[in-house]
Amino acid sequence: MIGESASNSSWGSSLDQSKRYIQWTLIALVCAGVIVYTGFLGAAFLIALPAFLLLLAFIFKKPKLGFWLTFGYTFIISFLTRYIPVFPWGLGGDAALAILLFVVFFKYYRQLDFGKVLTNRFVVLMIAWFGYMVLELFNPLAPSFGAWFYSMRGLGLYQLLIAMVGIIILQNKKDFFTFANIWFIFSIVAVIWGWKQLVFGVSTIEQAWLDTGEGRTHVLFGKLRVFSYYFDGATYGSGMAQASLAGFILALGPFKAKLRLFYFITGLLAFYGMLLSGTRGALAIPAAGGIAFLIMTRNMRLILITSVFLIGGYVFLRFTYIGHSVYQIQRMRTAVDPNDASLLVRLKNRERLTEYLQGKPFGGGIGSSGHFGQRFAPGTWLADFAPDGLYTRIRAEGGVVGKYIYLAIWLSLLARGMGLALRMPYSENKYIIMAVVAAFAGVLASSYGESVMTQFPVNFVTFIGLVFVELAFFWDKEGNLMPNNSIPSATLKATEDEEWNNTQGM
Fold it and tell me: Fewer CB within 10 Å, N- or C-terminus of the chain?
């Protein structure tokens, strides 16, 4: 019997080994077939698949940490695209947010009040705008689904995903400090990288990028418009202005001395980075954001001090020639010159667009202008039209109807944020809302001349900041969400609150 048992055991073990051998053989054959028919991309996919599955498991275990990693990733997407151009790095942000949304809903569907998630003001407005973009698929002038897919990501998808994921997993003031630390540390590194470009020159790979045609807009009269590791100088300048304004405002708040010093240093360095970029449109961020901040403070001393700085800056640029030998200052001066040649060309282009859109209230379709227009609908009028601002692009692709819906959505969120700040007493929470809302107001103003609100990482900073506007008004003195408020993350069942917090890992 013993011998028979041993024989059966050996036979079973041999059978299991044979099954495993057949399984691995089939897997190897499938992988070989994928590589043969798809080439390098297929091989890259197979190599990346195990890492993707590990990442998926990690995000499922710690979704909040996955959210912060995704946020940090948006700062280096342009760097990866420039230095390792073999992968579509931009789609990584989409995939990470989509995975996070799936994980959060799948893992916590029993604890969440989906009604409150889907009726939150920020979420509702983002759904409404994305719905309009979906309807644009039926625009008879739309070039193709491919043009719509690539274009709608920056115009509507990111803010929708961030609104839904953020409003669920972000909860307290500690989350805001994590957000601010990631934002400001990456901004400081960007300043250092930009300074390196100015003093020591660009790298070989960055020079190759300039040689592809980007040098026409980034090397003017022999002077470099610093772009750091961002997509371009405009995005870099606007991102630095956004961080600078928020840093200075937070430095005025009732935070610990070390935090205030960190915020102030960030504000100074980021302001220097903005100057390095030579981006004229970035000036709109401290200007418009500063005005919004003054309205929200209702503090006469701060109003007087900030007004002096804003007026002094305008007078310095508009009516003096101090520092005119410095290229960056020369470049900034053109932003306040009503007779600037570039401004006159933009105004003329917008007149041409108005004529083209006669009888086209819904525009030429999402993705029909600029880069995506040239890629998916070359030779068309809009493909050859380069929109010089986000709102011009919205009007070209979504028509006047889309433009007014878009502006109404963002202005309503701005008004809500300013209204919440005005209702709050002097506190850390008030300064958090004021910093985020002022930076948001500045980005809205800057988007008139540049499409910065659709570019990494400015878009993620802006949209995550708006999530905190929805949260901060309902924090208690300890920075936790108060009960019976309208934020869905507070609707978890009491018996499961501890488990939720523990799984966030932050």
Answer: N
